[in-house]
Amino acid sequence: MAGPTLLFASNIDDPAPWQALFARERPDVEFRIFPDLGDPADITHALVWRIPDGVLASLPNLQAVFSLGAGIDQIIRDPAFPREKPLFRLVDGGLREQMTEYALYGVLNWHRQMDRYRAQQAKREWRMLEAVHPSQRTVGVMGLGVFGSDIALKLALLGFKVIGWSRTPKELPGVESFVGAEGFDTFLARSEILVNILPLTDETRGILDARLFGRLPGGGALVHLGRGGHLIEADLIAALDAGKLDWAMLDVFPSEPLPAESPLWVHPRVLVTPHIAAQAVSAAAESAIIGNFNRFERGEEPTGRVDLSVGY
Ligand code: NDP
Ligand code: OXD
Asked: pLDDT grade, residue 168 (50/70/90)?
């Protein structure tokens, strides 16, 4: 067999910069772009955001799959995904700062009542609304991994009361840790602003539902930048309309692009963004991917090995 051959597949990413990266850093690697597979037996590695079901399983000499994203649910949703092959996700890759910017923007926008001031401005109304000091405001962060822990720490630095929820306990300065099913309801009952940055797994699918919204203190905000499959859209709209939630900023949706008929587009207390909380646009993403590819080739352990038994 010839040297390594990498299959690139994405329905959203331009292959050109990744092709240029491999041409520059690993000119020995043949770079193929889906759907031009050539001989499937040549392909040894795959760099994937999304690929049609069954394609990865049809590659007899595939050694490893690298995700173009931090999440991998969009890859393993393929029922034929070859679960015995190592799968590596993007760890940070320059996304962390962007994710934190997004979450902080959402928290601060609602906390400082900016939508109300915008509405007042439209009416040329000069009126001070009552302020809340950050030390009197509790923000709950669901998911304390690479992104969630950074978001929680930065919120704590801004002076908010910060609580976090994860599968295993965490020790982060200024962040109170809640764990698993036993800690969930107490965590929710205190989360005036809820930031969701969980991965999508069998455990977390549909977690943003009526039950969860009903356990929040009421009248607060949701900043959702995890995965679309976390959200039950109708339950969110019902929670907003019933005042269980005052405002939501949403980056990810059960169906993307968000269908034109979705009521979320026009809901006055929803801010919709098109899955842009973080984008793999920096040199950090390139060096994370090429570094991982090289480590795998040298027989070293790349970063971000996915544990398929827990789904992230
Ligand atoms: P990590 O794997 O580093 O962190 C995941 C966190 O979620 C961990 O703290 C983990 O707990 C926790 N968790 C997982 N399952 C459960 C559960 N059942 N109950 C409680 N806690 C749970 O992931 P990242 O921070 O790197 O990424 C998180 C997600 O962000 C990605 O999977 C992706 O879906 C999303 N994302 C969204 C983007 C966007 O643009 N909107 C961009 C990039 C990623 P523990 O620490 O105990 O393991
Ligand atoms: C990711 C994403 O997982 O962009 O990286 O959502």
From this structure: very high
Percent residues over pLDDT 70 in the chain: 100
Q: How confident is the model at residue 277 (pLDDT cuts 50, 70, 90)?
A: very high
Order of strands, sheet of 161-166, starting from the edge strand that comes earlier in the sequence = 175-179, 161-166, 138-142, 193-196, 220-224, 245-250, 270-272
Kindly calculate the radius of gyration of the chain based on its CA atoms and give it in whole angstroms.
21
Query: pLDDT tens, 203-231?
Result: 999 999 999 999 999 999 999 999 999 99
* 169-178 contacts at long range (C-beta below 8 A, 24 or more positions apart): 170/144, 172/144, 175/141, 175/144, 175/149, 177/144
> Does 136 score more than 80 pLDDT?
yes
227 annotated active-site = yes
Residues with C-beta less than 6 Å from any ligand 1 atom: 69-71, 95, 143-148, 165-168, 197-201, 203-204, 225-227, 251-252, 275, 277-278, 312
Distance 179 CA to ligand 1 centre (A): 14
Tell me the β-bridge partners of 220: 245
d(CA 132, CA 28): 59
- The C-alpha atoms of residue 222 and residue 213 are separated, in whole angstroms, by 10
Residue 275 annotated as catalytic: yes
93 neighbors 69 (Cβ within 8 angstroms): no
Q: pTM value?
A: 0.97
* Rounded distance between C-alpha atoms, residue 291 and residue 150, angstroms: 23
| Core vs surface per residue 283-311: b (16+ CB within 10 A) or e | ebbbebbbebbeebbeeeebebebeeeeb
Which ligand has the nearest atom to the CA of 146? Answer: 1
pLDDT for position 300: 97
Nearest to 247 by CA among 137, 110, 139: 110
